[in-house]
UniProtKB/TrEMBL annotation, chains A, B:
<feature type="binding site">
    <location>
        <position position="101"/>
    </location>
    <ligand>
        <name>a divalent metal cation</name>
    </ligand>
</feature>
<keyword id="KW-0547">Nucleotide-binding</keyword>
<feature type="binding site">
    <location>
        <position position="44"/>
    </location>
    <ligand>
        <name>a divalent metal cation</name>
    </ligand>
</feature>
<feature type="binding site">
    <location>
        <position position="13"/>
    </location>
    <ligand>
        <name>a divalent metal cation</name>
    </ligand>
</feature>
<dbReference type="Pfam" id="PF01975">
    <property type="entry name" value="SurE"/>
</dbReference>
<keyword id="KW-0963">Cytoplasm</keyword>
<dbReference type="GO" id="GO:0046872">
    <property type="term" value="F:metal ion binding"/>
</dbReference>
<comment type="function">
    <text>Nucleotidase that shows phosphatase activity on nucleoside 5'-monophosphates.</text>
</comment>
<dbReference type="InterPro" id="IPR030048">
    <property type="entry name" value="SurE"/>
</dbReference>
<feature type="binding site">
    <location>
        <position position="14"/>
    </location>
    <ligand>
        <name>a divalent metal cation</name>
    </ligand>
</feature>
<keyword id="KW-0378">Hydrolase</keyword>
<dbReference type="GO" id="GO:0005737">
    <property type="term" value="C:cytoplasm"/>
</dbReference>
<dbReference type="InterPro" id="IPR036523">
    <property type="entry name" value="SurE-like_sf"/>
</dbReference>
<protein>
    <recommendedName>
        <fullName>5'-nucleotidase SurE</fullName>
        <ecNumber>3.1.3.5</ecNumber>
    </recommendedName>
</protein>
<dbReference type="GO" id="GO:0000166">
    <property type="term" value="F:nucleotide binding"/>
</dbReference>
<dbReference type="InterPro" id="IPR002828">
    <property type="entry name" value="SurE-like_Pase/nucleotidase"/>
</dbReference>
<comment type="similarity">
    <text>Belongs to the SurE nucleotidase family.</text>
</comment>
């Protein structure tokens, strides 16, 4: 059986030169036709930011005849997806993958993550999407180990099709291949960042702050992404963008709103 | 019965001088003790962005003896909440309100909205929170009309307490008071922005883009925020930050992940 190769859009939030996205591009080139549109500089923790009060630039990086077409973009990860779909492709790709992020996007990190926001944006636009992250902030982290798992997860997603309005948040533990126990479907653990700002003083005598913080897992469940990662599994959380807390609507309807 | 006045944190994403936040501050001053920490410049569409690769500045705007303490902040709406709670107050306020946004944050806009991200951040930190938005982008929009409704919704929230891990997304139609039919609890409508980038050329001959687009409501339900607003109601959507698509976990567990 011969099938047309899928068209795969690749983006990230660490910038187009990051080893994480280069590893992702290498895997995707084995599976389909690849278009890369990624930020021209790091855009970590940009959440679902879009650029509405500033201009956007696209720069074609690849040359005529290159196997993979690549653009760097001056905007956020979400801008990259919007420009790729609406300006470069003028159609929907078969899949959008984002990452591999240098660092975790498990549990509450999904909310702050530019990597996952790019995947969510693709999902909103009706494109199957996966965000990949490795629990290693090192620029020279070992992405080779996780390549076969990225390939497997991508192929399963292409073969089965994602549930409607759902994208995948995949996190890899920082382990050798033989120590990874497998892939687990999880829910997002309840966790917070306990913030500790570092207050400093400029040479001119003005106070300023650096955001710092400590990750605190508040969730003892064994069905969470934090549990899976701590127990040597790859975590896969299905993520939705209907943020309605449907379970609370009945309770809120008992309030005296219109008296 | 005399009760201690609640401590209310006010922020927004249009910047501390925006008429929307000034209206919100005026209403909150009638209800509790108010601390304002808001961006020093517009931060619309910043989503849940936080500032991790740059310095943050707080500038105290109010003077000693002023009834309301106000700080402008160089960061995003989410940075404002984090700095207010962890550096200025060093404790949790009783409530965080964000807005009033100049323009809609209904349906999918909740994902892109700095106003709502500030409220969600407060919710993550365990603080009851409400985001308010008016369907009027005009800088000189009529915020007086909605003040009694803001007061009512805030008082109901303080009296009842919000469901756990839920914040409210409140949107007001652009109507005269006598034309507003009341307050409706809703779910988030399924909608998208259909993007049309405007391509232009710099004086130096380089292509650039402006993000533009058209809002498309894909949802015919009469229980949505879009329906409520189109039918002259104020919409209140309970918003959660557990993004897990719990309903899809069973289906994903049928895939061949570990073969």
């Amino acid at each position: 059986m011969s099938k047309k190769k899928p068209l795969i859009l690749v983006t990230n939030d660490d910038g187009i030169t990051a080893p994480g996205v280069r590893a992702l591009i290498a895997v995707m080139a084995e599976i389909g036709d690849v278009l890369v549109v990624a930020p021209d500089k790091p855009q970590s923790a940009m959440g679902h930011a879009i650029t509405i009060n500033n201009t956007l630039y696209l720069n074609k990086i690849s040359k005529e005849g290159d196997a993979i077409t690549e653009y760097s973009c001056s905007g956020t990860p979400v801008d990259c997806v919007k420009l790729a779909v609406n300006e470069i492709l003028k159609k929907k790709p078969d899949l959008c993958v984002s990452g591999v992020n240098h660092g975790s996007n498990s549990s509450i990190n999904v909310i702050y993550s530019g990597t996952m926001s790019a995947a969510v944006e693709a999902g909103i636009e009706g494109i199957p999407a996966i965000g990949f992250s490795l629990l290693d902030y090192d620029w020279n982290a070992d992405f080779d180990t996780i390549k076969p798992f990225i390939k497997k997860i991508t192929q399963e997603t292409l073969a089965n099709g994602l549930p409607k309005d759902v994208v995948l948040n995949v996190n890899f533990p920082k382990l050798k291949k033989e120590d990874i126990k497998g892939i687990k479907i999880c829910r997002q653990a309840k966790a917070i960042w306990s913030e500790k700002f570092h207050k400093r003083i400029t040479p001119q005598g003005k106070d300023y702050y650096w955001l710092a913080g400590e990750f605190v897992n508040l969730d003892q469940g064994q069905d969470t992404d934090e549990w899976a990662l701590a127990n040597d599994y790859i975590s896969v959380v299905p993520v939705q963008f209907d943020l309605t807390a449907h379970h609370s609507i009945q309770q809120l309807n008992t309030w005296k709103w219109n008296e």
